[in-house]
Amino acid sequence: MLTHSIVELTASWQKDNVIYDSSLIAESTDALTMVCRALETLNLRGIHLLLGGLQVNLQQMAVTEPTQARHSQLVRCLQSVQEHLSEIENSSVQTTLIDLCRSPVLPCPLSEKQAEFLGQLLALASIQTAKDIAKQTAVSTDVSVEIQDDLDPNLHDMLIVELPSLTDDFLNSLQKVIETGSLQDLDAARRTAHTIKGLGNMAGIQGLANLTHELENILDTLVDTQSLPGQKLKDDLQEAADCLAAMSESVTDKMAPPDNALPILQGIMDWSYLLKTEGVSAAAGERPESVASDSPEDETPQKAPKANPAPAVADSQERKEENFLRVPQTLLDNLFRITGESNTLTSQQDESITQLRTLTRTNRERQRHLQHLIFELEQQLNEYYTLHPELDPESEGFDPLEMDNYNEMHTSLSRLHESAADVREVEQEMDAQIRHLTDLHVAQSGLQKENLSNILSTRLVAVKTISTRVQRIMRQACRAAEKKAQLKIEGEDTLVDSQILTQLTDPLMHIIRNAVDHGLETPQERLDAGKPEEGLLKLRFYQENDEIRIACEDDGSGIDTDKVRSIAAQKGLVEEHAILSDTELQRIILLPGFSTRDEVSQLSGRGIGLDVVNQQIMRMQGTLSIDSTRGQGTLFELSMPASSLMIRALLVRAGRQLVALSSHGIEQSILSLDGQLHQVGDDYRFTVGDEDYRALALETLLAEPRAQYGGDNIHPVLIINLGQGEKVALMVKEIIAHRELVFKEMGEYLPDIPGIPGVTILANGEAAPIIDLPARVLHHQTSHIEFSELLESETLPDLPKLMVVDDSISARKALVTLLKDTGYEVSTAIDGLDALNQIRKEPPDLILTDLEMPRMSGIELSSAIRNNAATSDIPVIMITSRSSDRHRNEAKAAGISSYLSKPWTENNLLDQVQTHLKREVPEAAPEKVLM
């Protein structure tokens, strides 16, 4: 390739014997630049420097008068370069090339020292053949993600902050290459890999450095030759990018490298070896032997597009130009708490000012009344003197001593008039101050709203921050299920409260895994059904009416309601001949313990999954609806409040207390006059036009004495949307106001109350419960007497409760993440004593513990559990780095159920957990469907 490039360049200088011009010099400079890059990759330092010198000569020739002598000399130099590349080890050709470049005809000839130095470099040059290149084999230490102990703290902080962002950039660039064939994004991926490699080398993280080094080698070859990878190489590059992201999480969370890190590194090393030995054409072929797939697909090589490549991702550049500060999570939590308290105080101030203005108006009325009394007193005094003229000072019989009394009385009236006038002046000044205080309060409220908006914005993040992780989960699920599918995400720029987005991640992962495992068909099944071989899963995020909505739709086989009915009947969840709508049958899959899988896999079959999703959404005051069409696909729709700090609510009176009804689920507010309340059997119905709703009283949901509804009573009626097309009419005695309130959670020491997620502080300082009406109504329906009788005969299976005991934060987090993602309910303890205290309150179904811990070790914890009759049957799995027989024997003597040595694998750990959990599904047959 290099020789061919020089041949073409020489031919352009020999064309028609025309003396060079500026355009020819520019083309030659660009061509030599490409050749120099290739020479640098091949480590041919001598010829690389010599061609750099020819570029300098070309630059000088561009600014001087063209001469035939320089033209001819440059042609001879290019011909000699061509000969040197053809016979790179020929010493006579090397000497000729150096002599030609030393000619004084050139504007910048080689000096004597330069010629001697380059001659030595050219003599050392040699080209490796395929036989000279050794094939490398990766070992476990090559994927280590341990950080050097003596790493500089500033570098460590930079590593933790920058590494996730860089791996996301690499994944995004590589994804654009796969989707659009963009050569510019291919180069961006190469540069990002180089940056990650440098960061890994500085931190001494061999796994990151080795994997990115091999990736960079492959990308270097593709970029230098302006080539795109074939489908096989694309798949392996994407899998390597996923592994790189997992390695990044392992570094930041101080966890072991992913299980597939070693085979993936070996596969990338094999690709690098293949490209070096067989050339860039191998990039369009099959996988190297060590990572070859059994797939019979025959992919055709892709050619580079002729159109201009798409521009690089602007978001990444903008983000890198913006300055960021790291702020502790506790500081942000305090800011939110203070902002919430400040907002509550502002509401209380507003109420106080309103009360003060009311008192001012009352004072003004009392002052007018006082003036009226003074006027009446003065009139009565005049009438008195009229009726008693002898008291008149001008009468003959008037006693002078009585003149004093007359003057003092009139003086007192005059002083009363003056005092009333003074009070009026003070009242006017006070009213002016209240108006000024009101203006200040309005300005402060505006600043408070702006401050609240800014504080809330610190928690707002774009959905695209989890796109990479969601895409990775999708690819991993497809690999595990041996299916092909593409995930399309819409509304990635939608801003969501980071706490809500974090809580949403786990339910989304469950839904994606469920869609891949249960919804999407295998490639052959899709082809037989007339569908594309590759399935499609769409995630759409959008904000509507202060709610975040997520739609997850697949084009798979849909929910088999006949199979759902059959399994539900077998498990006693529904009568065999009960008449149920498709909507009711589809919601059965949300019940705990329900699964349509007969075999347990890493994706499903344990009976935990969508029930966890539904519970999590309910905790977030959200709803989950399902709409499935057999053979066409399934749509899951999630909705929840947009903010975890503020909530829009209706203040209503229920019994003797005020409660805040979350606007979530309230579809309409009408008056009882707009419809008719009537009784049908044991239920009440509310009819509005052609719509007929089941009627409930708010007091019934809150266990308060119910008010009188119906008859001539006029009261508000709220239409509540429960999801899945189900609505109810809620009777409310009085609506006070519509407010935006601060949401406060109940706290970790109080149990979850269905439909009452938290409280708020009202303007009068009182606390009011926040009611999530859809969740509360559904809880009320399932708590009806028929269901109570059902629950007496059958106990619904709960989620298995596991406890992780470890003094290492990162180890606890790794285990908790894995077990929660699988669907278990997990609690944690920092050592044996902490675990025993928690076990006394609520014993778990299984314990996973470390060996070495402060205060009480894992061995001592197991002995204490076995010596207590109440806990002696709890399985205990020990996970430790100690693998000697002595430690194993001690653990066995202490009653350890299983002993796992680090590093452990996810599959082995989950299998051990499943083996020791012996939970049986009840077989009693209830009479109704539990929704």
UniProtKB/TrEMBL annotation:
Cited function: Involved in the transmission of sensory signals from the chemoreceptors to the flagellar motors. CheA is autophosphorylated; it can transfer its phosphate group to either CheB or CheY.
Span of domain Histidine kinase: 404-644
Lineage, opening ranks: Bacteria, Pseudomonadati, Pseudomonadota, Gammaproteobacteria, Oceanospirillales
GO MF terms, alphabetically ordered: phosphorelay sensor kinase activity
Domain of life: Bacteria
Residue ranges, compositional bias (Low complexity): 302-314
Record flagged with keyword Kinase: yes
Protein known as: Chemotaxis protein CheA
Gene Ontology biological process terms, A to Z: chemotaxis
PROSITE patterns hit by this protein: HIS_KIN, HPT, RESPONSE_REGULATORY
Enzyme Commission number(s): 2.7.13.3
Annotated ranges, domain HPt: 152-254
Origin species: Pontibacterium sinense
4-aspartylphosphate modified-residue sites: 850
Catalytic activity, reaction form: ATP + protein L-histidine = ADP + protein N-phospho-L-histidine
Alphabetically ordered keywords of this record: Kinase, Phosphoprotein, Transferase, Two-component regulatory system
Region (Disordered): 284-324
